[in-house]
Each structure stands twice: as C-alpha cells, then as structure tokens.
Design brief:
Strand content: 25-35%
Largest sheet: 9 strands, mixed
Radius of gyration: 23 Å
Number of domains: 2
CATH superfamily of the largest domain: Alanine racemase
Number of helices: 12
Bound molecules: ligand LLP
Structural class: alpha/beta
C-alpha cells in the first residue's frame, strides 16, 4: 500500500484522511507514515543482511524524537553531526555504541560530550580535528575510536550544493594526505584508529559514483592494513537517492547493496551505512491550505499557508516535489505557480504546475517532504515552526506541537548592559 494516496476522493495518509488531521491540528503541518518508515528500514536491513552491517540513520534528515525512536526500536544506530543530534539520538534510545559522530568540524565541547558518552567512533575530517580529539581524550582519560573521512575526488552527479566528494568540497581528507594522517594517528595518545569513512553526496541517482568511491576506499583500506593500521570498520556514508517524481527512478536498494558487497564485502569489516533521505524522504508530506488565488497577467498563483521557511528545498535546491491538491469538487485543470506568503520571490514551491482549479480553504499536499523538511525550517517572518504528526494505520498523533507566538517572542529578552 502506498502510504500517501487518494482513496475514495480523499487524500489519505495510511488510513487517515488528511482532512481529519487538518481539522484537528490546523495547517500547515508535516505528516509522516510509521508504516512507510518501518518498511524502508526493513527493506534496507534485508538487503544488507549478508554483510556485517550497521544502519546508522543520518539524524539530520529528520530528527523528530518519535521518528528516531521508531528506528531505534528496529535496531538502527545513528549518524550525528552535532551535540544536539547526539543528545537526540541518545534520548530516543539509540545506544552510544551504535552512534557515529560525523561533521566537518566538531568543537571541543562536542568532542568532550561524545567521549563522555563513549560513542562508537568519530569520523574525523582534518588533522587539526584529530589533534583536538586526542588532546580531549587524554584530558578525560579516555580513548577515542576514529575513522578518517576520505575525500575521494569523485563527482556524485548530484546538485552542487549537496555534492561532497570532490576535492574542491570542504569535506574529508585528500587522498594524498591519507597515509600521513593515519601515521600521525598511530602516534597520538588517546586515539585508536578503527576505520575509514566517506560520504560523497546526497540524492545520488545512479550507482556509478558509489561504485567508484567504494572501490577507491576499499583499495585504501587494504593499503592501510598493509601498513599496519587497524581497519575494522568501513563507513560508506549515505546518499542513496529517492524518486521525487515519476520521471526519475532511483536505484533499488538491492542493487545498492550489491555494489556494497562487490566493492567492500571482501574486507571482512563492519560496514556502516548512513542513509537519511532514503529512509524518511517519501514517508512524509507537508500539508497546507490555499489562502488565496490570483492572476498577474498570464500567471495564476496559488498562495498557500506553507512557505519557504517551512520547507526550503524548492527555493534552496530548485528541488522538484510532486504537489497535489485536494479539491472539494472536480474542476478543470489550470496551470499554477504555487507560492507561500513570505516576502521573497524565492518563496515558490513550483512553477507552471497543472492542478484542477483550486479554491481558498482547500488542502494542498507537497509530497516527498519527510527528509530535510521540518529540520531545515525556520521561523522567518515570525512564522511558527510547523507541527508534525505521525500516522499509524487509522490513528494519528501529534509528535511536535505548533509553538505559540508568545513563546517565540519570549526568546528575545530586554537588553541589559554587560561590561
Ligand atoms: N552522512 C553524512 C556525513 C552526511 O553529510 C549526510 C547528508 C548523510 C549521511 C545522509 O545523506 P542522505 O542519505 O540523506 O542523502 N538538505 C539537503 C541534503 C543535505 C545532505 C547533507 N548530508 C537536501 O534537502 O537535499
């Protein structure tokens, strides 16, 4: 069953008509399907089951506690990139032994907190970071397990803003520096090298870049082993793309797993994958309501109550998302620019989309909004962060409340002098 679909003339999330939730919660809101998330996790785990693999959910894709908890209950680990995400993963029940800490620059405070929790390992991105981790580990009388993120200089063939594996990107350690960095690590106190890591980008729609990068990392792992380094873990990052529309088809997870097996399977390592989008992207939608419609010359605008601050992907990456309207009556189709109320032309979800003519008050659904939706929201224009709802069968529950205006404004405090 498709988690989100029209049935009996009503748009449904699992067995709940989206209109019921809109009436109870108000719009806009994010809506997620428990069944969809669990099915994705199970499919991935099943594809990887011949390997000694750990799925570390990239919490950045959607860090709602209820969703992390669903994955924790299924045995997932977590890939975190900040102290905040680490705290979320731990609170949602993911054991520290299944948490890896990635990110291009961890602060001393973050390193200290992660060491105190005894996380699985750090994915280290620079020599200075390595030294900071060593010094902190010594100070706390701990040993930090580390893998180094390699920058394999491979083009993931995705949007430039989410491409991370080319040498001009800020991420990882250049292949030419790898040998020297691992040698330094051997000598540093408080450091135990456990593996290699990479992440070449996100929303990757072909397997070629994965195959090239994973092969490169496998060669490196072998060379490092030959040089006496303890390489027991290969962290392959995330990045597997999803279908946002009918024209583009992402590789199947089984084919992806076959690439993993073929490229790094022979190394007898613990294999970590860090999917974010693949697990939750198509398990969520953003539901808004039409406020007004209007035409400026030849363009028809559908102005809805969700905006770029609630869902940034279309304005930030020109991302295409399927958008469906829930009309109360069958109406002839019209071409619409679907926009929010924020005072920027970039506050546009889609241009020239064909939808049956819509009226103020009708619901509009932006699909594929489960990943990098709510987590990238802001309260720009003093718009409250959008609430989140989780559906399970014919039940739904709020998993994040809409804040009230007083609590938003109360974050600002009157100026007092500090000398
Ligand atoms: N691991 C690391 C180290 C990452 O930086 C990321 C994503 C992931 C895993 C998960 O990647 P995924 O499986 O979700 O592709 N906001 C952008 C996406 C940014 C991705 C950042 N890193 C978007 O909306 O497209």
């Amino acid at each position: 069953m498709d988690a989100f679909a029209y049935r009996d003339g009503r748009y449904h999330a699992e067995n709940v008509a989206i209109r019921r939730i809109a009436d109870a919660v108000g719009t806009p809101f994010y809506c997620y399907s428990r069944t969809a998330i669990e099915a994705r996790y199970d499919a991935l785990a099943e594809s990887l089951k011949g390997l000694d693999a750990l799925v570390c959910y990239a919490v950045k894709a959607n860090s709602n506690q209820a969703l992390i908890r669903l994955l924790a209950d299924r045995g997932a680990g977590a890939d975190v990139v900040s102290e905040g995400e680490l705290r979320r993963a731990l609170l949602a029940g993911i054991p520290a032994s299944k948490i890896v800490f990635s990110g291009v620059a961890k602060t001393l405070r973050e390193i200290e907190f992660a060491l105190a929790q005894d996380i699985r390992h750090f994915n280290v991105e620079s020599e200075q970071e390595l030294h900071a981790i060593s010094a902190t580990a010594v100070r706390l009388d701990k040993t930090a397990r580390v893998a180094f993120r390699i920058n394999p200089d491979i083009d993931a063939g995705t949007h430039e803003k989410i491409s991370t594996g080319k040498s001009e990107n800020k991420f990882g350690i250049a292949v030419t520096r790898v040998e020297s960095v691992y040698r330094q690590a051997l000598e540093l106190p408080g450091i135990e090298v456990c593996g290699v890591d990479l992440h070449i980008g996100s929303q990757i729609m072909t397997l070629g870049p994965f195959e090239a990068a994973y092969s490169r990392v496998a060669e490196l792992a072998q060379a490092l082993r030959d040089a006496g380094h303890g390489i027991s873990t290969i962290d392959l990052g995330g990045g597997l793309g999803i279908d946002y529309d009918e024209e583009h088809t992402a590789p199947s997870v089984a084919d992806y797993a076959a690439v993993v097996e073929k490229t790094v399977g022979h190394l007898s390592c613990k294999i970590i994958v860090e999917p974010g989008r693949w697990l939750v992207g198509n398990a969520g939608v953003l539901v808004g309501r039409v406020i007004y419609t209007k035409s400026n010359g030849s363009t028809n605008f559908l102005i809805i109550d969700a905006a770029m601050n609630d869902f940034l992907r279309p304005s930030m990456y020109d991302a295409h998302h399927t958008i469906v309207g829930e009309q109360s009556s069958a109406a002839p189709e019209k071409l619409y620019d679907i926009v929010g109320p924020v005072c920027e032309t970039g506050d546009t979800f889609a241009r020239k989309r064909k939808l049956p003519a819509m009226e103020p008050g009708e619901l509009i659904v932006i699909e594929g909004a489960g990943a990098y939706g709510s987590v990238m929201a802001s309260s720009y224009n003093t718009r409250p962060l959008v609430p989140e709802v989780l559906v399970d069968g014919d039940e739904f529950g709020i998993i994040r409340e809409r804040p009230d205006y007083d609590s938003i404004i109360a974050l600002d405090i009157p100026w007092t002098a500090t000398r």
